[in-house]
Design brief:
The protein has about 750 residues and is of the alpha+beta class. It contains 17 helices and 31 strands. The chain is about 30% helix and about 25% strand.
């Protein structure tokens, strides 16, 4: 097999550029330049080399490790002492004790791992130079493509079919008998491969953690099997040294099917896709994909987009150029990624979505639920991909059993708890260390996504059967977890403001505390949703009263010495005033406790908080910058939001348009897409707000198909920064309040299933 290498190619003139087309003049030199594709479960990254190519592969249940009891048996009996030390102003002593007695054993959770690599080596026509090279990802069809001329014109197309549950690779040439290459499946460790019949390679293995950080893990993991099936049209096929070799074919279709021990599949059933023509497989894939993708259209200008490759356009933006069409593309790319890595019935999107090439990925590519996993799903409802939220709800259900066990074992509490990470087995324990892991609000925050799904769809059956039971359990935990601070307030703890630290008056730097404000804000938000839900459903009046009584005792917001919203109960100094987390602004976004008109003084403090963070270097990670976009949008400052969209593209976007922390994390893509939507449409304050944060750089445009709370779909046209046409439609009849950027509020009465048009004024 030819060794996989990066191939330098001749630069060529682009043959045209569509607004939803990522394209490049050269093959990917590394993973950060490769193009992602997926069907929610199966995916990969297309490199696009000429003589030597690789498609790195992933399947969403290939995780190292196993389900095991990680609870620290010392936790429950030491919890009261940790709280006492924190209340006594002894955080260092509390952290030492908590690290030894509450953090899980072992301390780490297992990682998500790659499936393997499809490697392809192509015949070299030494007499023909390579020309006309183009590598692209078509967001309109969900198909990656490579084209080049080397004597003849060669084309490869790659997609992952959600309909047929196979990865499809199609290799063609415009001249007969010119397709010659060798292919194999491989993985860097823990696998073996074999031939099966004349046209199959079978790769079998087990995902085992090999990094020293997981030394306490047993060498076991999810077992998997991948089958590569080659379907040549003409030519001859042979096998040797692990390769399937095809010589002189007119065209070849490769299919890859996968099963794992975590979610077994009938591979033979999936490979019945081979009975279909390539044209049929492609048409079925496109129809299924476009059913989701085509729901939303966005245009941010009338001038043509620059006829340049995507990586060159990103460099131009980094150098100060305006490119609103690249922002359109970024927005739709986020929707493409969610369609590609979060389909009903599959696993939720991890820290890297579906895409990971390392056995030991950064932060184990798990579910980091102190912001990142939640951010992954911010665009689901507003960008009209509501059903793609379902894998997150499944993850919550998967984690609730262990969450109940840990709630009782550590805190003596009812309900369920999740800390700052979980995995494919739904582990609920506090991991890693007290500096990040001893934060018991993950389950509460995640449960709010169920309310959001109800609020956008107004599906009462979903609220009754799925959302309310989960939120009630999360609230039960909080009722038992909260403690009296001695001043009449109920506070959480031991806890922390995610991953940040503070400095006490005596000069001690610490992280653990009692009652950080993000905890209070999440608690208040959840209690409000539980009260609302039980009222809507007409149930649990006694429980509702208990929740209301506890909510009334939560600490009020406080404004600190810099005019900022306090992050902690005390107005501590911050060793890192530009910290990447801005957790105390949860109440602004994704919460709705702070709004410019409802709480103007708190909105002013939120602005001061943002300005202080940014002045001290905040927003230096992609996901943090994405959150900042959403904050500015909620503060209705379109120019600030727009500046941060540009900064996200210029500073935190890789050549393949994926977000970088650094390294790669997908949450910035999803948070950025959600932020762009928030700039155009908001619905969290009891009204549908049209163009609430439109920057001067987007004076003319249109958007079709965004969703507002209350089950309303919205189309907006605007010109000279003013809405010229607004169309609302809903399956549910009734009045809606619509706010325009000039302050005008119009009450509209929607008829079920009928468009309501608000003309220019």
């Amino acid at each position: 097999m030819t060794k996989i290498i990066a191939v330098a190619l001749f630069a060529t003139t682009a043959i045209g550029s569509a607004s939803n087309l990522l394209w490049y003049r050269q093959a990917a030199a590394n993973w950060n330049e490769a193009l992602p594709f997926g069907n929610g479960r199966l995916g990969g990254m297309v490199f696009g080399g000429v003589l030597s190519d690789q498609i790195q592969l992933n399947e969403d249940t290939v995780w190292a490790g196993e389900k095991r009891d990680r609870n620290n048996p010392e936790a429950a009996k030491n919890l009261p002492e940790v709280r006492r030390l924190l209340f006594a102003g002894m955080p260092h002593e509390a952290e030492v004790l908590a690290e030894r007695t509450i953090i899980s054993t072992p301390k780490r959770l297992p990682p998500y791992q790659p499936l393997g690599v499809l490697q392809m080596g192509f015949a070299d026509d030494a007499h023909s130079a390579v020309s006309g090279y183009r590598r692209e990802l078509d967001l309109e069809t969900g198909i990656a493509r490579v084209r080049y001329r080397q004597g003849a014109m060669f084309t490869r197309e790659v997609f992952s079919s959600a309909v047929d549950q196979v990865i499809v690779v199609r290799i063609t040439c415009d001249q007969p008998k010119h397709v010659t290459f060798a292919a194999t499946l491989s993985r860097v460790s823990d696998t073996k491969s074999r031939f099966e019949g004349s046209n199959r390679i079978v790769l079998e293995g087990e995902a085992i953690a090999r990094d020293s950080r997981h030394a306490e893990e047993r060498p076991v993991g999810v077992k998997f099997q991948a089958v590569l099936l080659a379907i040549p049209e003409g030519g001859t096929m042979s096998k040797s040294s692990g390769d399937l070799s095809i010589v002189g074919a007119d065209a070849v279709t490769l299919l890859i099917a996968v099963s794992t021990s975590f979610k077994p599949r009938d591979i033979e059933h999936d490979l019945l896709a081979a009975k279909r023509t390539y044209a049929d497989l492609k048409a079925r894939h496109i129809a299924d994909y476009q059913r989701l993708f085509n729901r939303v259209k966005l245009s941010l200008g009338t001038a043509p987009a620059p006829d340049l490759p995507t990586d060159e356009r990103l460099k131009r933006v980094a150098a100060g150029a305006e490119d609103p069409h690249l922002i359109e593309q970024y927005f739709q790319f986020g929707r493409y990624l969610l369609i590609s890595c979060s389909r009903p019935g599959n696993m939720a999107a991890t820290l890297q979505g579906l895409w990971n090439d390392k056995l030991d990925p950064s932060w184990d590519s798990k579910y980091t639920i102190n912001i990142n996993t939640e951010m992954n799903y911010w665009p689901a409802e507003v960008t009209n991909l509501s059903e793609l939220h379902e894998p997150l709800f499944d993850l919550i259900d998967l984690a609730r059993p262990d969450g109940r066990r840990i709630a009782k074992a550590i805190y003596g509490a009812r309900g369920f708890v999740l800390h700052h990470n979980t995995d494919i087995w739904g582990d609920a324990v506090p991991i890693d260390g007290v500096g990040s892991g001893l934060w018991a609000m993950g389950g509460a925050w995640l449960s709010l996504h169920l309310w959001d799904h109800y609020d956008f769809t107004r599906d009462r059956k979903f609220l009754a059967a799925r959302a309310y039971p989960v939120m009630k359990e999360a609230a039960e935990f909080l009722l038992d977890y909260l403690v009296d601070d001695g001043k009449g307030h109920l506070v959480t703890g031991p806890s922390l403001s995610p991953e940040n630290n503070y400095k006490t008056a005596s000069g001690v730097t610490a992280r653990l505390c009692m009652g950080p404000y993000m905890d209070t804000e999440i608690t208040r938000q959840l209690f409000t949703r539980v009260i609302d839900s039980s009222t809507i459903l007409g149930i649990d009046a006694d429980f509702r009263a208990k929740v209301k009584a506890a909510s009334d005792r939560l600490p009020p917001f406080q404004v600190g010495k810099y005019g900022q919203l306090q992050e902690w109960m005390e107005d501590y100094e911050e060793p890192q005033p530009g910290h990447r987390h801005i957790s105390q602004l949860f109440a602004l976004h994704p919460g709705n406790q702070i709004t410019p008109r409802g709480t103007p003084d708190l909105a002013k403090a939120a602005r001061a908080t943002l300005e202080r963070r940014l002045a001290n270097g905040g927003g230096h990670t992609g996901w943090s910058r994405a959150w900042i976009i959403n904050f500015w949008a909620r503060l209705e400052d379109g120019d600030k939001a727009g500046e941060n969209v540009t900064a996200l593209l210029a500073k935190s976007t890789l050549p393949n348009m994926l977000d970088t922390h650094p390294p790669f994390q997908i949450d910035g893509n999803f948070g950025g897409t959600a932020g762009i939507a928030e700039m155009l449409l908001q619905s969290h304050a009891g009204e549908i707000s049209i163009l609430p944060a439109l920057p001067k750089t987007w004076p003319t445009g249109s958007v079709k198909g965004l969703h507002a709370r209350g089950a309303v779909e919205v189309d907006i046209d605007w010109k000279d920064a003013k809405a010229s046409r607004v169309v609302l439609r809903s399956p549910i009849a009734g009045e809606r309040n619509v706010r325009f950027a000039d302050g005008r509020v119009q009450v509209v009465n929607l008829a079920a299933g009928k468009d309501f048009t608000i003309p220019a004024r």
